[in-house]
## 1
Amino acid sequence: MHPVVNQLIQLEELILIRDEQKLMSGEAHLENLNAAIKAMTGKLPRDVREHAEKLGNKQQSAIVPIAVQVCSGCGMSLPISLVQAVRLAREVHNCPNCARMLYFVESAAKRIANKRRRTGRQKGGIARFSSPSLMIPKLTSTTVEEVIEEMASKMEAEGFVEGSDKLVEAALQREAIVSTAVGHGLAVPHVRGVEGGGLALAVGLSSKGIRWDGDQEELTRIVVFIVIPTAASAFYLKLLAGLAETFSDTEARSAFLAEKDADGMWKSLAKLTRKTVK
Ligand SMILES: [Zn+2]
């Protein structure tokens, strides 16, 4: 891969993570991220940096993947010659329509299974993304890694995703940059950029609590594991913000933690997020 493309992808990742953190926990703990973003931006060649900053000012990603010959930034079909050039990556190429820089993703390792079950009529709110079978009233794991494994395996067992080991790896990489424990005993480990399928989320409760982030005094008791396809990359930020809002409320949190079985969790989750997740 072209080194500048690689730098841009890493930079894009950090900017997205900063957006997530801002939405979930406000401006706190952003110093390290800001410093990393500044340092990485400074290393880009001048023309690329100016181009990236121009897109950033319009709240647009500087670089986006090509998904099946389509620019995932604007949705335009790209000429095969351009796709090939991006794939060879001898230089940095822009989308002729939206001007975002492009990169090529070799393989779709993390694919959401198509066999995802649909139950009955079209549901609204958070029910679109989950099912009672993805509610875990008693997480048996006690560490971050094990909990993510437990939840990803559950998703796979219920036919929502495949290749859960890859998901676990990606979720842990994300945790390594900045913890997704957002306070109030809530953590939202997640994987972005999954191919195909729809957004899926599983929710687990831990009565003992999990030490998610060494810096945080509060133990994590509610874990929401989210798998996000590229197509939902704008929506998921709203979802994260909605979940953080719901569970920052003490009453909502205790009501949810009091649930003892999957059905109770499912009903309670729908009720508590009615206003925050549209
Ligand atoms: Zn485009």
## 2
Amino acid sequence: MAIITIQKMRHEHISSVVELDLLCFGGLWNAQGYQRELESPNSDLLILVISQNTEDRNKEVVFKYSNFQSQLTYNQSIIGIGCLWAILEEAHITILGIHPQYQRFGFGQLLLYTLMRSAWERGLERATLEVATSNTSALSLYHKFGFQDVGRRRGYYQQTGEDALILWRGHLDDSEFEQTLSEWHRQVVARIDGY
Ligand SMILES: CC(C)(COP(=O)(O)OP(=O)(O)OC[C@H]1O[C@@H](n2cnc3c(N)ncnc32)[C@H](O)[C@@H]1OP(=O)(O)O)[C@@H](O)C(=O)NCCC(=O)NCCS
């Protein structure tokens, strides 16, 4: 049995997160980039940790789940990273990645749910992000959370020249959104329970 937590990232996590960034994105941000985010009051930087230590007393835990069946190679590993920037009334989701060995267990949607919850707690009105047109996994995930394609940035990715789609999800400040969050929570926990 393993415990899954989502925690606020701290300085001591930087080197593990940079390694994970390399695996998930091929090196999007370096250590200085993550340090800058940690220092910014407008950033929510979250890590998803899988661990065998059920006595985790970390006060920075924002989500905890303790029934995941897993044979762990290590005692504790950071297997996911997510970040949003709060800019005026918008949540800009800048990073969402799950370690390749832990993809398709429902952790991507767990992290996205938690980011959307953070955006709502900050009182933001809408969320936005860019995603490569060929990234069908991510697109499918975002569409499930009500994101809609609203535009395209041509040649956005310098290395490949690929276009990015611009996605938006509005109505975070509607009174019904709290109910939507509860429903997402139920779904993400049920999904992880399936394993
Ligand atoms: C995108 C990413 C975060 C998804 O994480 P994940 O933990 O594998 O996703 P989940 O298991 O939570 O899946 C949730 C939904 O995402 C979609 N999805 C995820 N992986 C998929 C795949 N390989 N093919 C098709 N759909 C996929 C599905 O809609 C899935 O729901 P379903 O399983 O009910 O069909 C992960 O693939 C990743 O880290 N990719 C590399 C980094 C990246 O591209 N990030 C997005 C940048 S914008």
